[in-house]
Task: structure prediction
Amino acid sequence: MADSAYAPADFSSWTCPAPLRDHDRIVMGHGGGGTLSAELVEHLFAPAFGNKVLAELGDSAHLLMGGARLAFSTDSFVVRPLFFPGGSIGDLAVNGTVNDLAMAGAVPAYLSCAFILEEGVELSVVGRVAEAMGEAARTAGVLVATGDTKVVDAGHGDGVFINTAGIGLIPDGVDIRPQRAAPGDVVLVSGPIGVHGVAIMSVREGLEFGVEIQSDTASLAGLVADMLAVCPDIHVLRDPTRGGLATSLNEIAAAARVGVRLDERSLPVPETVANACAFLGLDPLYVANEGKLVAFVAAEHADAVLAAMRAHPLGKESVAIGQCVPDHPGMVVAATGLGGTRVVDMPLGEQLPRIC
Amino acid sequence: MKYLDEFSDPVLAKRLFDDIRAVTTRPWSLMEVCGGQTHSIIRHGIDQLLPEEIQLIHGPGCPVCVTPLEIIDKALEIASRPDVIFCSFGDMLRVPGSGRDLFKVKSEGADVRVVYSPLDALKIAQENPDRQVVFFGIGFETTAPPNAMTVYQAKKLGIPNFSLLVSHVRVPPAIDAIMNSPDCRVQAFLAAGHVCTVMGTTEYPELAERHRVPIIVTGFEPLDILEGIRRAVIQLEAGEHTVENAYPRAVQPEGSPAARAMLSDVFEVTDRAWRGIGMIPVSGWRLSPKYREFDAEHRFSVTGIETEESTVCRSGEVLQGLIKPHECAAFGKECTPRNPLGATMVSSEGACAAYYLYRRLETPDKEASSVG
Result:
């Protein structure tokens, strides 16, 4: 290097952009399951529909009809590719809504199914999706009882979009809501996290992580039933899909005005997921799952519930990952492996891969 | 990849913390140059566990943060054109230009695509011969070689509809600029390991000697960072100022000759403006005359960008290591990842974003202390 190769920088000329205004159009982040999604619902949809049932803003609505307690939920599926290791959009369309119902403690019963098909998509593809849905519904013990089909011009869809809605009965004595999280509750998770999101990324982006990673898509209704059999008084259940475990925990902490404290060393992150996330600069806590649940259970019931979870095929690797605390209400804090702490915040939109 | 566990081992980390504590007798200020290191430090809570005397100052080593506003506005203008497919790494999409970002441009109909490699953009160009495909080539010496290789391939294969919007920057001139600042508080540097993987370490001894600062080439996992800190403190305590390689599993003194040759062929050194710091002579790369036809700035004639500045954001001082993110009055209030006033709050590697996302529950008093 030459002597005095660089002149002193002009520190008076640093630049900084004007603040971004709130978006005046829908951006991809509005569908990411994070803060942007929540604000869209809270500030645009909820005021327009304005009713007490919707105001709960749970994954399922809790309804009282003719003396029966029903859980009612809907979800849309726009995944690309349509088929991926371990499942398909058809599996997700059934399991996603079934799991939303199960997270209310309900026994899922009936689904509706609305297809939005793009002109030009092959019938054989639609057939494979429908077959997958039928198989998933049989496995979950639900009936697809009603449906609809629409076709949009070529270029105005992505092959196959699906919406499903579902209803199920909530058993007597069961009251599962995020607002019921209480200090002292143990936080349980039913197995390895981040698997579905990494599986989708690996095929969508053509990334290979050494071994094929299979989506964990599954109906959790049976697992929930086994948990409720040993402890009807489970406080909270969530299936941490978009936005991952971090988003679900933040939603619960905010709804109940409690703190959540995680032990990072207890988090079940498979090596393949850890490696993929390290490679892409992502945090496994924010990566989607499609066959996992997180439960908040009073400490005196935690061992029994954990044992029931581990006895079920979909919960064999269940672990306790932390507890609910009275400190830092609305905030999720993780104890790091080295002994420090970090705040696990609500994501804004979707996680973005980091440059380096 | 088992390094992920091995280099995060809490038992070994505790030993390193103890070693650092044992050798530290007085206050020292160290700057970690790379944003990836900043993230690792905050995410693992490393700075909370260091001795009170050790202050870490976050350097300007986030390529997203230091990309000049002018370049981002050029990117937005190019991306808005109907004949363009604009390809970028993911975390550039939320960097605000003058009132817009690439997400907003995309929502208005622009064809903006996230790619994981510049070669993906080249493939898109081959698949879309009737469209102009532009790749946003930002970053340090780490991302410059693959971008150079992509331009080399575009020329070799004769792909006329591909171009590169270049905003590459070099680390050593930035270190020099920081040390030349009269306000500089940095007493040792943790140099960015991956930059040195490409460029080697030959540029650093002269800097270490002239500014009398230890420069420790450091990796990114917790144990790497702790080892870098340990070696820096040992040198500071002994009054030494040499270059040490604490990341030998990835860094050779000569770096990667093949990558350096590619850089020399495709790029030429140029003066480059850094957001938050200003113009630093010879701190950047641009396409060399041989490859100028692939320069998106020339191809799309993007000029005359005017910038409206925020008066409250202090990202410039954060980037220079003069203040911590939370010392800015706007931090966490007017300025959040959702409404970023400055680039340091936009990127997942930016110091402000790292503080916001992984902020500790209480701010240790030691962070407010000034080490001059």
About this structure: DSSP finds 17 helices and eleven strands in chain B. Chain B touches chain A through 99 residues (CB under 8 Å). Chain B has a mean pLDDT of 87.
